[in-house]
What does this fold into?
Amino acid sequence: MTPQEAASSRPAKIATTLAALCATASLALGAAPVSGVTAPKPFGTTPEGTPVLLYTLTNAKGMVAEITNYGATVVRLLVPDRKGKLEDVVLGFSALDGYTSDAFRKSSPYFGAIVGRYGNRIGKASFTLGGKTFNLAANNTPGGLPCALHGGLKGFDKVVWDAQPVQKAGAAGLKLRYLSKDGEEGYPGTLDVTVTFWLTASNDLKIDYRAVTDQPTPVNLTHHGYFNLKGEGRGDILDHQLTLKARRFTPVDKGLIPTGELRAVKGTPFDFTTPHAIGERVEARDEQLAFGGGYDHNWVLDRKGRNLTLAAKVFEPTSGRTLEVFTTEPGIQFYCGNFLDGSLTGKGGQAYGKRSGFCLETQHFPDSPNQATFPSTILQPGQTYKTTTVYRFSAK
Ligand code: GLA
It folds into this structure.
């Protein structure tokens, strides 16, 4: 940084520090909430010995987002219900060891993490690019068919990111950066990734994803939060009413790899173009639901261009909370927590049973590196990967 740059970034730094101090003071004194980032707290130490921190973002409405730099993971998200009562609406653990435990790694639910370099599945755990075949770890075998899932054995959800609090008008943020080495998890090229979370004054959790590479490489980054709008640990999510702005989805084979078809949802349990409770048809006799053990599919968003567009809406009747998801991405994986089996106990001391949370993972389509007709996920040197997703909360 030149002295000039240092001088010009000083007011921003002072503003960030002041906001952090105000946020810390207001939390400590129980005063009216203010927007800011509190001083980070220790969250634990990785098995490799790296200390990890927990950052708290607040807004003036009392919404709170706690994010750790391990896996760029959203640990807690306090959101008001229709009476203004705050409740934590995401699944997770109160300390790092929950995320690094053998039980968690074995069942790999990816609670709240950023997944990458390639979120979702790559069939047969390999792809060809520029005439060369790249072999990845086959870390998932649905239906007995091996594939690569969510970036590999040690994907972006299991690494320690550099974190820096940031502030702008109307929003407190946390900027996380990770440098993924050439060849890491079998992927070509050094990938410089930045993910910035913003908590805005209007109860949006906004995520900006950026990446640059020095060699062509597939990139598909997403946030793997599990939501329960009643509050984490408060049973299943089957009564949540879901709308998806998608008239088509990408059907899969028994290995959960897209067949390449873009199939109309009309007349099937996959039609969420009007609101339906998640549980209404999840057990219907349907080959696709049988493959996923419930909903675990990518929908093709109805969209024009790459503007931020409403992709999904979820309403929970008892609390009155609504989550709307906006994205610049072409697809969304709706996964209703079919693999959760009660073996993990979360922050509030409750076991997370089957379908106790749902994910809305904005993304490019699964297996895109092997599917010539899907929108490309290949990032070229000189290009910038740039996507945005907003999780907007309201209550009535
Ligand atoms: C994604 C996948 C699911 C499952 C979860 C993590 O949503 O589509 O099949 O692997 O991640 O458990």
In short: Helices lie at 3-29, 96-100, 102-107, 287-292. The mean pLDDT is 93. The CA atoms of residues 21 and 202 lie 22 Å apart. The longest strand covers residues 385-395.
